[in-house]
Design a protein that fits this description.
Blueprint (H helix, E strand, L loop, with lengths): L5 H10 L2 H12 L14 E4 L4 E4 L5 H18 L1 H27 L1
Antiparallel strand pairs: 1-2
Length: 107
């Protein structure tokens, strides 16, 4: 136990949310934050844990990474049939090629 209060944890968490990190990077580099990196509808998603729509800009960086990883995993599962079909097609092609090579060698 570090002795920090819930309030202190929340304050520190807000300091390092994505929006603030982007501002810090902008201040450090002198490069303006990109127009699509603000709190817009495109930068929001439904949070199952909070039960509401939240902004990516208000998320802690680690939560944003987890959210992205979850999105990628769900996307891959939805494309799994197509992915498997691609592998099956490739394996059939390799099998046909191997059989053809074997037949050519035996002639």
């Amino acid at each position: 136990m570090t002795g920090r209060s819930d309030f202190e944890r929340k304050v520190k968490s807000r300091m390092f949310n994505v929006g603030n990190l982007l501002d810090m990077i902008s201040n450090f580099t002198g490069i303006k934050r990109a127009d699509d990196m603000f709190d817009t509808d495109e930068n929001r998603r439904y949070s199952q844990s909070q039960g509401e729509i939240i902004s990516f800009m208000d998320m802690d960086l680690s939560h944003l990474i987890r959210s992205y990883r979850k999105f990628v995993n769900e996307s891959h599962h939805s494309d799994k049939t197509q992915y498997n079909k691609g592998w099956e097609d490739a394996m059939k092609h390799i099998a046909r090629y191997t059989v053809q090579q074997t037949e050519d060698e035996n002639e």
